[in-house]
């Protein structure tokens, strides 16, 4: 009887154990960092870019002031389109207003990883990093590397 009862519990136990693997959110205080990811790089020398969302459920603003990857360096950047050209500039600290969500995406704010140890990033790779917030402090995260969808080009395409 114990064996049968245990087998009935296996689906529930496996669901409980698997949930953290699918939940790709990281919390610190009133902040939730959602789904950090980067796209695989398609050519040597291409700077990988990271994206995620930050939700602030608190009553006060916070600011993302730095990112420290496990390999290489990273900076906060913004992509701007002008006359069919895309350029990126330093974004400096990013304010996360109280009660709002800020999204880093291929067509706007993003993280630019430079001088990573591995020149090419492949789907299923991972990059550990620490996001540094002014109030919430340090938040360890994992950027999962995902395959690009057809037509995404260099990651700046709005498609």
TrEMBL record:
Highest rank taxon of the organism: Bacteria
Keywords in alphabetical order: Signal
SUPFAM superfamilies per UniProt: DR1885-like metal-binding protein
Residue runs in coiled coils: none
Protein's name according to its UniProt entry: Copper chaperone PCu(A)C
Record bears the keyword DNA repair: no
Alphabetized InterPro entries for the sequence: LpqE-like, Lxx211020-like, PCuAC_sf
Record has Signal as a keyword: yes
Signal peptide region: 1-23
Pfam families referenced in this protein's UniProt entry, alphabetically: PCuAC
């Amino acid at each position: 009887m114990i064996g049968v009862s245990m087998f009935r519990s296996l689906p529930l136990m496996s669901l409980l154990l698997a949930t953290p693997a699918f939940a790709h959110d990281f919390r610190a205080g009133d902040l939730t960092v959602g789904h950090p990811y980067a796209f695989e790089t398609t050519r040597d020398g291409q700077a990988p870019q990271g994206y995620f969302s930050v939700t602030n459920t608190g009553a006060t603003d916070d600011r993302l002031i730095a990112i420290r990857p496990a390999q290489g360096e990273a900076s906060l950047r913004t992509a701007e389109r002008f006359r069919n050209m895309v350029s990126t500039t330093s974004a400096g600290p990013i304010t996360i207003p109280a009660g709002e969500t800020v999204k880093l995406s291929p067509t706007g704010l993003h993280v630019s990883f430079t001088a990573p140890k591995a020149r090419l990033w492949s789907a299923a790779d991972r990059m550990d990093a620490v996001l540094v917030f002014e109030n919430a402090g340090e938040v360890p995260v994992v950027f999962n590397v995902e395959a690009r969808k057809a037509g995404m080009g260099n990651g700046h395409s709005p498609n």
